[in-house]
Amino acid sequence: MYKYELIIYWGEEDKRYLVEVPELPGCMADGETYQDAIRNAEIVISEWIETAQSAGREVPQPKGRLAYA
User: Fold this and answer.
1) In whole angstroms, what is the distance from residue 28 CA to residue 23 CA?
2) Domain encompassing residue 39
3) Which 3 state secondary structure label does DSSP give 39?
4) 30 vs 26: CA distance, rounded Å
């Protein structure tokens, strides 16, 4: 289980839950249910990290709770 912050919201247009992982640029997932969206986010996070590592890019460490102004 990863400790990256997840932002989860309902997408009215698509009628799906959407998940953004702000610490991993471009990392997003969706799902028909809240639980599906979380499971899909875990898969996408894993794939994001694998891709970054294979490309020699740095993988950000989870910062925990983020604050936005």
Assistant:
1) 11
2) 7-54
3) helix
4) 13
Cα 55 to Cα 28, 46, 48, 59, distances in angstroms: 19, 14, 11, 11
> In total, how many domains does the chain have?
1
Residues 24, 29, 23, CA angle at the centre, nearest 5°? 15
The two tokens of residue 4 are 């990256």
Local confidence pLDDT in tens for the 69 residues of the chain:
789 999 999 999 999 999 999 999 999 999 999 999 999 999 999 999 999 999 999 999 998 665 554
Tokens coding 52:
């970054």
With respect to residue 62, please indicate whether it lies within any of the assigned structural domains.
Answer: no
